[in-house]
């Protein structure tokens, strides 16, 4: 497991090279028999059934608290907030680096200072729609627009 990304990786003991992708020439069965294979997609959940995620929050006038670190009085509609997120979604195009960059500059959450990283959390710690969306993602994948009382989010599950 990578200590920084909390994701499994492959390490070649002969060449001392590591990669996120399974080595060429290995079948699914070969990969399933490697040490640590339980951490791969579909494997064991993180210890304590916790997940780690980053998010990009766009608040709107109907949000529970329609203000943020960058805007004292948020007046945009929910529909406008969703359109903003869809623009970010297209710009991210699967890149975790772009996600963090956009979250840092645009998220209405204080987690913007950490690229949107919320750290590890377990069930019952987040609003239900956020929790369900996060637990429904595989590590390394991003949600579609998720609505909560806080606003609308894009969620990137990181572990």
Automatic annotation (TrEMBL):
It comes from the Eukaryota. The keyword Isomerase applies. Residues 1-25 form the WW domain. Gene3D superfamilies: 2.20.70.10, 3.10.50.40. One of its GO terms (molecular function) is peptidyl-prolyl cis-trans isomerase activity. One of its GO terms (cellular component) is nucleus. PROSITE patterns: PPIC_PPIASE_1, PPIC_PPIASE_2, WW_DOMAIN_2. Signal peptide: none annotated. InterPro entries: PPIase_dom_sf, PPIase_Pin1, PPIase_PpiC, PPIase_PpiC_CS, WW_dom. It catalyses: [protein]-peptidylproline (omega=180) = [protein]-peptidylproline (omega=0). The keyword Isomerase applies. SUPFAM superfamilies: FKBP-like. Keywords: Isomerase, Rotamase. Its EC number is 5.2.1.8. Residues 48-159 form the PpiC domain. PANTHER family: PEPTIDYL-PROLYL CIS-TRANS ISOMERASE, PEPTIDYL-PROLYL CIS-TRANS ISOMERASE-RELATED. This is Peptidyl-prolyl cis-trans isomerase. It comes from Cylindrobasidium torrendii FP15055 ss-10.
């Amino acid at each position: 497991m990578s200590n920084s990304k909390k994701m499994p990786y492959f390490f070649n003991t002969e060449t001392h090279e590591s990669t996120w992708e399974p080595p060429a020439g290995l079948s699914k069965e070969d990969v399933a028999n490697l040490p640590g294979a339980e951490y791969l997609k579909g494997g064991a959940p993180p210890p304590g059934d916790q997940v780690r995620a980053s998010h990009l929050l766009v608040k709107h006038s109907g949000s529970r608290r329609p203000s943020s670190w960058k805007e004292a009085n948020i007046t945009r509609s929910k529909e406008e907030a969703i359109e903003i997120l869809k623009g970010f979604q297209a710009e991210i195009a699967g890149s975790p680096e772009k996600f963090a960059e956009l979250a840092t500059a645009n998220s209405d959450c204080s987690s913007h200072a950490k690229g949107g990283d919320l750290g590890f959390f377990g069930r019952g710690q987040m609003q239900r729609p956020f929790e369900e969306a996060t637990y429904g993602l595989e590590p390394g994948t991003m949600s579609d627009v998720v609505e909560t009382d806080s606003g609308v989010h894009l969620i990137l599950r990181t572990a």
